[in-house]
Amino acid sequence: MSRQVKFVQGNEACMEGALYAGVQFYAGYPITPSSEITEGMAMRLPATGGKFIQMEDEISSICAIVGASLTGHKVMTATSGPGFSLMQEGLGYAIMAEIPCVIVNVMRGGPSTGLPTHGSQGDVMQARWGVHGDHSIVALTASSHQDVFEMTVEAFNIAETYRTPVILLLDETVGHMREKLEIPEPGELPLVERLRTSVREGVNYHPYLPREDGRLPMSDFGDVHRYNVTGLYHDMWGFPTADPKMVHDLIRHLIDKIENRVNVLARYKEYYLDDAERVLVSYGCSARSALHVVKDRRLRGERLGLLELQTLWPFPADVVKHCCDGKKSVIVVEMNTGQIVHEVKKAVDRPDNVFLANRVDGEYITPPDILKVLRLIQGKGV
Amino acid sequence: MALKDYIRERFFPHMWCAGCGHGTVLNSLLRAVEQLGLSKNEIVMVSGIGCSARISGYVDFHSLHTLHGRALAFATGVKLSKPELNVIVPMGDGDALAIGGNHFLHAARRNIGMTAIVMNNKIYGMTGGQFSPLTGVGGMATTAPYASIDRSFDVVEIAKAAGATYVARSTAFHAQECTKMIHDAILHDGFSVVEIMTQCPTYYGRKNKLGEAPEMIKRFKDITTPIGSKAKQENPELIERGVFVEKNLPEYCAEYDKIIERAKGGA
Ligand SMILES: Cc1ncc(C[n+]2csc(CCOP(=O)(O)OP(=O)(O)O)c2C)c(N)n1
Ligand code: SF4
């Protein structure tokens, strides 16, 4: 095996994943704690023949990658809290116009400029609901550098498969921590290329007419099919419409193409769940502490398990239900005032049994923090 | 190619009011493209939001109707990722210089090869006649019911200062001049700006008591003059028309190709 092994930051692992996935265009604006992704792209992308541009802000960054995606390229941007807020309008555009693109948000403490250099998982709901209007979204996350790499590749694959923006929610802790990364050989991980239309020149091409399998073949700007792209409700040619039926059908299509695939899109890891009495549910950096607690308690004979979510949106409710129903208690571990905990409560049969172990003071959530909550639930002293 | 082959006929009649200047701009633009003999597949039109931005839907090019003010940002992505495309960006004055002001400055600074057409009707048309950054002191608008105290921008001065390498101005009265300017702007290798003063009889005209469309159009003849004319010396109030800047400086996408070479360890 000649797998390249590196000792890197999570942000660099993300950049490596994007290059592996075949990113060809990157536009970004620096912001802590995501800047290493932008810097890494400036360094590495041109050598692959790809293009990097530092835009004047995050609004233009997301707009630029949407434009570049339409010429047929794999595109990405990366940012953090305040920048992610600025991107929401462009994100909505990408959802509406069905443009494949990857948006990385290395989360920091907020609201506002908050805690730039501290970890947080406070943007889980912004990822889901930051865009105005009804919509659906895909958001992935990762807890280790190997995961970061793989989820970045996944993000591109999902974006290109379903013509949709995909958000990768990392956090400062994972982004800045250094650990080992093994870069898979070319071909080891599957890569998806967008479906391009087979319709010939002169034959009517409908950019917004889904095939039976739900996929919409694209044509690159500059190619033989000229069509319209708009953020307005549109017909199958991409032309604006306010026809109630077309409007209804389009919003249903945009939502259903993702919500109907919850189980296809669900990525997660299970640890010691088979015989677990109690389950921790976590994701991102918090899952590292959660796993530590589980392993530690197992050594002492306690039947504790962990469900680590890698897909946050669409929320994998079936998976959560399957792993949590019938357990004595479920503890959601996250670094916010409770964002995924509500989704878990909605998913399980006994929401009263779902508890939150969290921390929102800018400090990393530690195993003792989680243990404290566990002990309270168990009615034992800390 | 016949002019009508450049338009998407099934999308007519257009949504503009009778007498709106935007139609004249569309006409000039199509004539410029026709003269250039460009293939429709090599043109991408990127617009923002506003009455002016609707131009992109009516032309049979690759068209991208984006967000208010963001057209140049989307266009930058299109152009840099596929530099062989001709990118034309029609914008309203609000689109270009209010919400999109920063993008305008930076596209000009980069000298990225595209053509920005700023349709200056001194008002927000689509949202119903609020003042724009070009309305100017004394102008009337729905959000300036006691007359505007906001000073106006000068598109040409801003474009020059920001580094655009082709800058021109004309009006909807001077349709042939517009065609020539758009033609040259598209040919120009770098960021080109063509400001076209257009009439919005529905809002600006009515609010400012300038009469119907024909009077407004004729007015453009009276209030403008070619650059450096004698009339301008006699009446400094006149607005100059013509080409203000035409120079060759390195174009952004071409410069980026050199970065790629450097990164690959070449020259
Ligand atoms: C973020 C955002 N803010 C505001 C609007 C509302 N809006 C639509 S068009 C427009 C202004 C149009 O004026 P202008 O750009 O001058 O073009 P015109 O309609 O006059 O051609 C505004 C404010 C919007 N669509 N998006
Ligand atoms: S409102 Fe004004 S700018 Fe808009 S179409 Fe009517 S005349 Fe033209």
TrEMBL record, chain A:
The keyword Oxidoreductase applies. The keyword DNA-binding does not apply. It comes from the Bacteria. One of its GO terms (molecular function) is oxidoreductase activity. Residues 276-370 form the Pyruvate:ferredoxin oxidoreductase core domain. Keywords: Oxidoreductase. Residues 16-202 form the Pyruvate flavodoxin/ferredoxin oxidoreductase pyrimidine binding domain. PANTHER family: SUBUNIT OF PYRUVATE:FLAVODOXIN OXIDOREDUCTASE (PTHR43088:SF1), SUBUNIT OF PYRUVATE:FLAVODOXIN OXIDOREDUCTASE-RELATED (PTHR43088). This is 2-Oxoglutarate synthase (Alpha subunit).
UniProtKB/TrEMBL annotation, chain B:
SUPFAM superfamilies: Thiamin diphosphate-binding fold (THDP-binding). GO terms for molecular function: oxidoreductase activity, acting on the aldehyde or oxo group of donors, iron-sulfur protein as acceptor; thiamine pyrophosphate binding. CDD domains: TPP_OGFOR. Residues 49-196 form the Thiamine pyrophosphate enzyme TPP-binding domain. GO terms for biological process: cellular respiration; small molecule metabolic process. Keywords: Oxidoreductase. PANTHER family: 2-OXOGLUTARATE OXIDOREDUCTASE SUBUNIT KORB-RELATED (PTHR48084), 2-OXOGLUTARATE SYNTHASE SUBUNIT KORB (PTHR48084:SF1). This is 2-Oxoglutarate synthase (Beta subunit). It comes from Desulfatibacillum aliphaticivorans. The lineage of its organism: Bacteria, Pseudomonadati, Thermodesulfobacteriota, Desulfobacteria, Desulfobacterales.
